């Protein structure tokens, strides 16, 4: 289970970032590219400084820059959000490969602090899983819980939902639609950047071109599976993290299944889950933000 949490934490960071983007009405398909930029930035900065905190800040700033570009293109210029997101993914994939040439294959001498909860150890299963998690796994869980309370228990969360559902009504009520969208798109992109940070600093501490291996696309699918709810996202990310870890476990056990098929497990599961969710909810009204993907023109009536 601890392996599932380690493999699921990058997914969870990315899913939470995607939820913030989409709840405010902006589609962000640039997740994969932002994760790669966050990862390669973390690798380069840590090799230069060997300072975990500076590396953390660098990943946040790099991903915030891409989030700002996406926000400007989609909110201020009102360009097509899908095209902008795909452009960021293509840019992030190519630029990270270019930046990573000088550090490819370099092992990172990183030691991520762990939070030891010795009082949990006597508890079966829970103690083994949660008694010795790294600090960033706990940070991700904390962010998910805070996001839930922010979105569903505060007036700011109500404004967030209103901007995503009916920006024109929010504007009439005095809520800054562009301000909310800019803030949440950039913040969500920073969480996606932390996904790349965790991937290279904790999960696999050496740079490999394209090391996200499609996790950004799985995260986009998990937003729908989690029904735009941060707590559901916890369960979804760790479930798919478990599937990812299961493939490695089968390889260690030398099961007579080609490794290529084992690596396909999370992606096949993504397709099956989306099919199931679509079939189950085929007669129900959609729950996604009603203005998702729709540029807002002030004083335009929807």
TrEMBL record:
GO molecular function, one term: transmembrane transporter activity
Record's signal peptide: none
Primary location recorded for the protein, binned into one broad class: membrane
Membrane topology recorded in Swiss-Prot or TrEMBL: Multi-pass membrane protein
UniProt keyword Transmembrane, yes or no: yes
Keyword Membrane among UniProt keywords: yes
InterPro entries: ABC_transp_permease
Transmembrane segment boundaries: 27-47, 52-73, 79-99, 135-152, 182-204, 216-240, 260-279
GO cellular-component term (any): plasma membrane
Pfam family, one: BPD_transp_2
Highest taxon, organism lineage: Bacteria
Compartments, as annotated in UniProt: Cell membrane
Keyword set, alphabetical order: Cell membrane, Membrane, Transmembrane, Transmembrane helix
Name of the protein this chain belongs to: ABC transporter permease
Organism name: Robertmurraya kyonggiensis
Upper taxonomic lineage: Bacteria, Bacillati, Bacillota, Bacilli, Bacillales
């Amino acid at each position: 289970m601890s392996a599932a949490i380690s493999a699921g934490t990058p997914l969870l960071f990315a899913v939470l970032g995607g939820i913030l983007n989409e709840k405010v009405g902006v589609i962000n398909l640039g997740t994969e590219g932002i994760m790669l930029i966050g990862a390669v930035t973390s690798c380069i900065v840590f090799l230069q400084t060997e300072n975990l905190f500076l590396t953390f800040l660098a990943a946040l700033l790099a991903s915030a820059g891409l989030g700002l570009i996406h926000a400007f293109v989609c909110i201020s210029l009102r360009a097509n959000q899908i095209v902008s997101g795909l452009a960021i993914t293509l840019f992030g994939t190519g630029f990270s490969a270019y930046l990573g040439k000088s550090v490819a294959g370099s092992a990172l001498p990183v030691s991520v602090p762990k939070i030891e909860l010795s009082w949990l150890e006597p508890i079966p299963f829970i103690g083994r899983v949660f008694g010795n998690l790294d600090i960033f796994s706990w940070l991700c869980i904390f962010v998910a819980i805070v996001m839930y309370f922010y979105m569903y228990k505060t007036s700011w969360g109500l404004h967030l939902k209103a901007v995503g559902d009916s920006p024109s009504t929010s504007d009439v009520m005095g809520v800054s639609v562009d301000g909310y969208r800019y803030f949440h798109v950039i913040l969500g992109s920073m969480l996606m950047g932390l996904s790349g940070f965790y991937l290279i600093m904790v999960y696999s501490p050496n740079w490999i071109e394209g090391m996200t291996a499609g996790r950004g696309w799985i995260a986009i699918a998990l937003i729908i599976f989690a029904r735009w709810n941060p707590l559901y996202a916890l369960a979804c990310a760790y479930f798919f993290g478990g599937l990812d870890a299961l493939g490695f476990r089968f390889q260690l056990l030398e099961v007579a299944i080609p490794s290529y098929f084992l690596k396909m497990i999370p992606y096949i599961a993504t397709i099956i889950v989306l099919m199931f969710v679509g079939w189950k909810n085929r007669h129900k009204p959609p729950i996604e933000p009603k203005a998702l993907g729709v540029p807002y023109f002030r004083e335009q009536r929807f």
